[in-house]
């Protein structure tokens, strides 16, 4: 189909040998040039040694003059008396529109001669016309002796000030024109024709049809009320022809069959006819002219009527969108229609929601037939999520699974509709189907609250993980704007309402859908597939373990995170968990005492030396000490705790990890402080500390009612044999000194138990090799007792 000609004045001038018989003088030509929007030029054609231009108010471009001369010549219809003075209208390549009337020139010597008076209407005047009748009434039949009147341009004000009423189609004429309207607005390039008894009968109806068209089509529409065969502009045929009834048989051979009565009974055609008569809903008229304003294609009229009638019959948005996408697959065509279709709000009849529109973009062909900007995705997605977030999230997931085929789908869609495959490929990144995921994810990122979690896990687990990561206190760098500290507990509570299989989905989802889709989803791997980065990001979900209803469940979650993770990710996970555990109130932290099971013990030993002291102490409380690796490491991983205050439970766990030989000096100091803290907790009735000592204090002195003395006695038995630097027991003395500094009473009781241990060892008897061991043992104990007295001398004895 030929494109609409550019609206620009002709630049070529007439050649000197082709001037009309009468032209303006130089002054007149300057004052009424064709470039002036305030005048309408006129031209007269007739017989003078052949059909030619006889007079004009302006020098015409040679090509335009040739076209006007050809189209103003007789068609043969003017010889029929009922068609004398038939009307024609057509556009010129320079943007002007021609209205002309042709009469039989019976006074001329050559049979078949005609007079044609043509008015050349500039685009600005044409757009401002209220009614075509002001121009039609200006067309008049000339005589041979009065040609000079056609050499003056007509002021545009004469037409623009006219207050005449635009012609309208009468109800009685609707049936006659129904097949013409049907064929006219169902095709773009074919000539539509019908017959008439006279031009007078159809002229007003045809002007009503023409003037009722939307402006883009009206200024391109071509018609002739006195045709007997094909009529053509330079590159295309006339749109509408009226043929005398007497010439109908011969016209069929040249033009094909005329419009048939059977073509005019569709509901879409009836709606267009009702609009012509002024009886259609006013909303349809506004819809038609608004959407069609950007196209000169005749078929847009029937397509828009079809969309309206199907919408009024309550067809689903999916069906309407598929209809529009099939009719206008190119995203640059009918953009206004696509905007209205995807913006529910009353422009079309029927009830449709923004959630429906998002679903249509994600699952229908319309997604690759409209640009994201035309769909107004920001506002559309925000409202859709409020209406039905499960529908929107599910549609987005489906689109994400297929987003990498969007370009191919777009090309295939254009090919099916016989448009050039690959058209607008450079703009494919702007297609609504490609842009929708990023908009949904961004809006969900901003709007999601803990109540969304189940829906996010079901449809977009990557986004669910991002929201949970953002809720972590240790994830400030990517925290969402609406994630407040008070929401963290709510996010965690909703997380633990998930089924176990739903929780595992979070560990399998890709890292951040948002970060990937916002860049270039076509070139990235699928955001729904796990990869190395996603396994590492699992560690940021470890904080949720702390909020589990049962510590055993939290411990299992932590183990699950670490199961397939890299070593670095495991270390990060333990670090996140320990940080959260340290921030819990002591009452809540007690639930976690001894809850971390042995499989994680070795990993904990790697992590704790690099943790903040507070997190290290919290982790110590949560550990179950059955692991042989923990016992073998003794106090070495926990030496940072010698610089902070620890709880009675943590101190009890430290005592259970006392080394058997060769303590480091930091371990010695930590052992003394741990003993003093634990002793005070036990004496003050802290059942949790006593319970965590397990069988450590009960193996010796089980029948002693004094728990403090039992603890001191056990510690004395543990530290007295320490062999440092060839048997020196100064380490034991330093333990005693540290305990004394931490708590005077605890140190006193430990000293007493050390002396008692020394006395008991001195009085023991044995034979053979055991005697030699006894002598050595006695010497070590005496050294411990001596160091104890040295440390405590001057304070108490």
Unreliable stretches (pLDDT < 50, length at least 5) are: 1-36, 404-410, 416-429, 474-483, 511-533, 724-728
> Looking at the structure, what is the overall shape?
rod-shaped
Output the number of helix runs. 38
The number of E-state strands comes to 9
Mean pLDDT: 79
Spatial extent as radius of gyration: 48 Å
- Strand percentage, roughly? 5-15%
Q: Biggest sheet: strands, sense, closure?
A: 9 strands, mixed
How much helix is in the residues?
40-55%
From the N-terminal CA to the C-terminal CA, the straight-line distance is: 115 Å
- Secondary structure class reads alpha+beta
Can you walk through the features of this model?
This protein is an alpha+beta fold and 797 residues long. Strands 1, 2, 3, 4, 5, 6, 7, 8 and 9 form a 9-stranded mixed β-sheet that branches. Helix 30 (613-622) crosses helix 32 (648-656). It is rod-shaped, with a radius of gyration of 48 Å. Mean pLDDT is 79; it is low at 1-36, 404-410, 416-429, 474-483, 511-533 and 724-728.
């Amino acid at each position: 189909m030929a494109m609409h000609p550019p609206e620009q004045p002709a630049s070529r001038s007439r050649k000197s040998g082709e001037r009309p018989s009468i032209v303006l003088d130089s002054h007149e030509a300057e004052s009424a040039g064709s470039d002036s929007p305030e005048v309408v030029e006129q031209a007269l054609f007739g017989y003078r040694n052949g059909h030619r231009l006889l007079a004009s108010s302006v020098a015409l471009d040679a090509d335009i003059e040739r076209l006007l001369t050809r189209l103003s010549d007789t068609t043969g219809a003017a010889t029929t008396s009922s068609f004398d003075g038939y009307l024609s209208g057509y556009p010129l390549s320079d943007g002007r529109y021609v209205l002309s009337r042709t009469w039989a020139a019976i006074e001329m010597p050559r049979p078949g001669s005609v007079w044609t008076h043509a008015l050349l209407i500039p685009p600005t005047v044409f757009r401002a016309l209220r009614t075509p009748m002001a121009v039609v009434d200006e067309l008049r039949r000339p005589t041979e002796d009065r040609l000079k009147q056609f050499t003056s341009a007509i002021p545009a004000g004469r037409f623009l000030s006219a207050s005449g009423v635009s012609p309208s189609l009468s109800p009685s004429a609707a049936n006659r024109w129904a097949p013409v309207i049907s064929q006219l607005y169902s095709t773009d390039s074919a000539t539509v024709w019908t017959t008439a008894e006279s031009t007078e009968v159809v002229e007003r109806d045809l002007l009503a049809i023409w003037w009722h068209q939307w402006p883009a089509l009206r200024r391109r529409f071509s018609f002739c009320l006195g045709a007997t065969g094909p009529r053509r502009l330079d590159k295309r045929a006339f749109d509408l022809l009226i043929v005398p009834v007497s010439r109908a048989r011969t016209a069929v051979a040249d033009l094909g069959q005329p419009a048939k009565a059977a073509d005019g009974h569709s509901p879409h055609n009836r709606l267009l006819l009702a609009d012509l008569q002024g009886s259609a809903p006013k909303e349809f008229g506004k819809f038609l002219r608004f959407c069609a304003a950007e196209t000169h294609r005749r078929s847009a009229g029937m397509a828009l009527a079809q969309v309206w009638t199907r919408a009024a019959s309550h067809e689903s948005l999916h069906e309407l969108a598929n209809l529009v996408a099939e009719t206008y697959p190119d995203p640059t065509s009918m953009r206004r229609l696509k905007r209205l279709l995807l913006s529910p709000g009353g422009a079309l009849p029927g009830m449709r929601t923004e959630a429906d529109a998002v679903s249509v973009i994600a699952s229908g062909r319309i997604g690759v037939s409209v640009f994201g900007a035309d769909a107004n995705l920001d506002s559309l997605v925000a409202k859709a999520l409020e209406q039905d977030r499960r529908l929107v999230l599910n549609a987005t997931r489906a689109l994400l699974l297929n987003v990498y085929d969007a370009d191919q789908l777009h090309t295939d869609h254009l090919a099916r509709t016989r448009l050039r495959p690959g058209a607008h490929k450079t703009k494919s990144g702007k297609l609504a189907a490609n842009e929708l995921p990023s908009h949904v994810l961004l809006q969900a990122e901003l709007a999601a609250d803990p109540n969304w979690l189940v829906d996010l896990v079901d449809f977009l687990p990557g986004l669910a993980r991002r929201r949970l990561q953002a809720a972590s206190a240790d994830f400030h760098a990517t925290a969402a704007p609406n994630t407040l500290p008070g929401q963290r507990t709510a996010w965690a509570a909703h997380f633990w309402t998930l089924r176990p299989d739903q929780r595992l989905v979070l560990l399998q989802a890709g890292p951040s859908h948002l970060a990937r889709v916002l860049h270039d989803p076509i070139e990235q791997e699928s955001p729904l597939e796990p990869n190395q980065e996603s396994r590492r990001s699992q560690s940021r979900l470890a904080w949720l373990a702390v909020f589990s209803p049962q510590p055993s469940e939290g411990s299992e979650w932590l183990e699950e995170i670490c199961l397939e993770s890299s070593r670095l990710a495991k270390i990060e996970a333990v670090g996140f968990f320990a940080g959260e555990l340290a921030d819990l109130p002591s009452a809540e932290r007690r639930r976690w005492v001894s809850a971390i099971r042995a499989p994680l013990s070795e990993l904990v030993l790697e992590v704790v030396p690099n943790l903040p002291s507070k997190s290290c102490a919290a982790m110590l409380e949560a550990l179950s000490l059955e692991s042989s690796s923990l016992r073998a490491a003794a106090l070495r991983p926990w030496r940072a705790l010698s610089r902070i205050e620890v709880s009675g439970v943590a101190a009890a766990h430290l005592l259970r990890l006392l080394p058997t030989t060769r303590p480091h000096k930091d371990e010695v100091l930590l052992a003394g402080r741990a003993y003093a803290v634990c002793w005070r907790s036990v004496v003050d009735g802290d059942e949790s500390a006593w319970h965590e000592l397990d069988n450590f204090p009960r193996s010796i002195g089980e029948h002693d009612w004094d728990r403090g003395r039992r603890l001191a006695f056990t510690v004395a038995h543990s530290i007295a044999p320490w062999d440092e630097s060839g048997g020196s027991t100064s380490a034991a003395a330093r333990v005693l000194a540290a305990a004394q500094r931490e708590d005077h009473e605890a140190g006193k009781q430990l000293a007493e138990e050390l002396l008692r241990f020394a006395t008991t060892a001195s009085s023991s008897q044995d034979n053979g090799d055991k005697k030699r061991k006894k002598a050595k043992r006695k010497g070590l104990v005496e050294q411990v007792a001596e160091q104890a007295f040295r440390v405590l001398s001057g304070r108490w004895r």
